[in-house]
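User: For documentation purposes, I need each entry recorded in a consistent format: the amino acid sequence on its own, followed directly by the corresponding structure tokens. There are two entries in this batch. Please keep commentary to a minimum and don't merge the entries.

Assistant: Recorded as requested. Entry 1:
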Amino acid sequence: MNFDSFAQAQSVMLWTTFAIAFILGAVANKTNFCTMGAVSDWVNMGDTGRLRAWFLAIAIAMLGVVALEYTGKINLDGSFPPYRGGQLIWAENLLGGLMFGIGMTLASGCGNKSLIRLGGGNIKSFFVVLIVGLIAYYMTNPLPGSDQTLFSLLFMPWLRPLAVTMSSGHQDLGSLVAGSAGAVKARLVIGGVLGLLILAWVFRSADFRSNRDNILGGVVVGLIVLAAWYVTSSLTVTVDGQAHTLLDYAQQWDFFANSDAGKPANSRMLSAQSFTFINPMGQTLGYVAAGFKNPLLTFGVMAVFGVVAGSLVWSLLSRRFRIEWFASVKDFISHVLGAVLMGFGGVLALGCTIGQGITGVSTLALGSFIALFAIIAGSAITMKIQYFMMMREG
């Protein structure tokens, strides 16, 4: 999709993002698509229905990404966040994933689910989103009166030295197996085989095959992640007969543009990207706190607004909108603690159950697989501990 001006191309990206996120919010609410709920059903009841829906979304996004990259429609090597970055920050992926898994269990839902519940009238989720956004913002932006972020103060000195620099230049499975020269073909084979194996496992269950909501949720979420990858990768601006990506245009703004009017505050937010919700909650808080300034309006901000709006509309149409408040002081403390852990963990791990669990894994990034495993493990262990404590109290 080519445009004559940056403003036109950016506007299409932002409003398309909102529309896709709106569908995500409505469908996730309608089908009760919930990654924390998926782990809970599996651990506590042995029911894998929603877990299979989650992995159906992963398979669809993965198969779509490797196919589009092989045909040259998209290129995710320089995505935001840098899932395939040249440094494997395995310790951050692992610790962040564990923290996020614990946090989403205590807060009754992951980042996406918190936005869904907020759109459905859950005031508890408002506090969760606010706390997550505040921590995520200061994990990536300097604290007031300082040049240090929460990440640089608390985590960087002891976690970042553990990172491993990849000789292939990227950490995805294709690059690790075949190097940069053969990465695209290797991704097609690896992603194709892995995606088909996941689909075989997903549809092996007769109960899953008979549940339309789980199938609908998995298919739509997977396609939505893929759609966002395609849209953010394919928008270009023509300058002197040559097409430039939005990122390329913004990085050469002084050369291409006549003034600073419309210049985005951060060009990284114009890279190829898809849905993730922890860092965008921080972006949204910054956007609101700055007085809704257009330079701070990003893909992530529109994604947050779109999911909430879609969930709200579906809740009203289906008459499921309900105002919910904390049941007790213990419930309040649990949600606050969970939100804190999600804020720290989501940024450390470079994503949430959607951001790493589907979007990141679709790129075949090794760090994304580590984060996904850690999130599931953190959530499952927390649920087991909660069950033990409940039985002990009983």
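Entry 2:
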Amino acid sequence: MRNMKRLLPFLMLAGACGFGQTKPAQSAGSTVPAARWPIESLLVEGNHTYSAEQILAVLGLKVGQVAGKPDFEAGRKRLIDTGAFETVGYKFAAGSAKGYAAVIQVLEVQQAYPAEFENLHVSEQELRAALREKDPLFASGKLPATQPAFERYKNWVQEFLAAKGQPEKIAVGVAPISTGEFAVVFRPAHSLPAVALVTFRGNHVVPSNVLHDAISGAGIGAEYTEDRFREILNSAIRPIYEARGRMRVRFTELSTEPTKDVLGLHVFVTVDEGRSYTMGKVSIEGMAPIDAADLLRDIDVKHGDVANFDKVDQGLETMRKALRREGYLNAKITADRVVDDGHESVDAVVHVEAGPQFTMGKLTVAGLDLEGEAEVLRIWTMKTGKPFNPEYPNYFLGVIRQQNIFEHLGKTAVDVKINDKTHTGDVKLTFTAEKPAEKPEGGGRGPGPN
């Protein structure tokens, strides 16, 4: 109902601006009804995920066609029924004497994801081609995550399976996939057997207990399909091998059998560990705000070492912290792998997105007398306008406590406020005094020898 309330005023306006206008002049002997005029042009506004051609194909109207308000209402309904749009409206403007110009205005559903098909046992290429014939919007590569869209596509997939002699009820929903992204996943609706036990075969470089520990969290208890379990292997097991230079590890065969002691499947994974690759060149592509040689020293890998991308990732995190200390608080650092199978080596190409540099703004000191505040301001070295180092305030308080600059120093606190508009950081340092030790009542001596 919320979307309808947003839509109705627009449609009323569209009607007033369109069919309420003076009819374009008609030539003598014309048979065009008064409420239906030729369409001289059709434009689409507000689209991002779907092309104008795809939207107009669903709309079902073409340039040169004689159409009226009922035709546009029917086309608007076809677009709404796809589940891909929050709202759809239309407006008209006078064209030449022979017709009018029409504009279709859409607001797309924000949540749209690629389609993935699991364990359907049919040609995915044929299935995708059939869905493109059913719905021109499918060609965009993304499906809206709405119930109307789910129902339409589920029915089409079930029809396709039935035509292939595999009548199957389908479940559809949004789920994570191997890339770490989300997708609209189609799979059989019946409950799938769960993984109860995993046995690895062919492994020599990595002990079986290490592989079992790695797979137990994500794999044991998971519903089994071969595609899904391969995704788990790629996310949980592949990094272990790549940390040992086995860049071409493959899981060549998966087989299952029912377990004897518990309800579930025993999954057998045959591993081809591949050969060990060495580290090639590590380089920074593009400009970096800090000397590239200084940044690359943070990656503790050398040419000829066993390729270990765990160490590369650790180095990238060290690089990110170095950039943050120079005021680049939003820095992002990634690395691409360039594998050379001929030399059995792998290069790391580092990409740096430093973002804006933040500087020190205002320093406020609370809890000290004027003399103490003046001393803090004197020894504070991150002055206004200098690069903002988010680690410095806590480091500064640690030095003050370590050097015992203030007697009876109690708790201290740091409050940092980052301004993303001015790219500055304000710091407030709060000091409290330690309560003096209370003397024993009566003024007598404490416990001691008689």
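Summary note for entry 2:
Residues 249 and 274 are 5 Å apart (CA to CA).
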